[in-house]
# Entry
Amino acid sequence: MDWGMKNRLSRIIKPDTGRTVMLAVDHGYFLGPTSGLENPRKTIAPLLPHTDALMLTRGVLRTSVDPNNDIPVVLRVSGGTSILKENLDNEGITVSMKDAIRLNVAAVALSIFVGSDHEKETLLNLANLVNEGEEYGIPVLAVTAVGKKMARDVRYLSLCCRIAAELGAHFVKTYYCDEFEKVVESCPIPVVIAGGKKLPEREALKLAFDAIQKGAVGVDMGRNIFQSDHPVAMIQAVRAVVHENASVDQAYDLFESVKSSK
Ligand code: 5RP
# Structure
């Protein structure tokens, strides 16, 4: 891995802890103005000081994040589908590597849909993106989307993460599951977890805690932060779990105290 690739990755996965708190706000690329993201600029701004890296689309980056921010960007470069159609797995690459570089990203991200009708296309999207990423020193994050027919279990998620690693992804985002340690142990690249659907804050903090305990290097969380009634308190609590090894109780106490201090 060349210097540039390592340097970009270290902007996302912090060297002092080996961990990361990424804020995912890329949902609109197929969901449109989903709850909590109606006004991306308003949602993102207060969370930036607590965010290690921002996962978003180029449209939201250009319109809703001031370029004078020193926030590492993980750019969503796959898409071409919408919630109106069944075939969410039929994604293509929507951003050129040239434009990603122009946007000074720290990494690019795409979804792979293992087991879906478009499995092959999305896996070849990954392979081609890695080829380009390697040429320019841009790390690639593979996002393991879970098709409707797939069970979000250790067998399936281990398969997805390992395929992503085998095809050359530099890090992978997946979901937490029972026996999650087996997903991490059989995946030779760093694993971060998505938060998934909105949970009560304490449950979401437990999810992050359990994932870290079982070997995840961090989270790339969206809805469980920006759909919280107290997003700033929530991201600070998530940070305590990820970067300070706080317990769920400690993190929840922090959430409560930041919430009441606002
Ligand atoms: C949406 C995504 C999101 O980046 C990912 O799901 C993380 O967000 P959340 O924590 O809300 O699940 O890939 O397709």
Notes: The domain at 3-227 is CATH 3.20.20.70 (TIM Barrel). The mean pLDDT is 97.
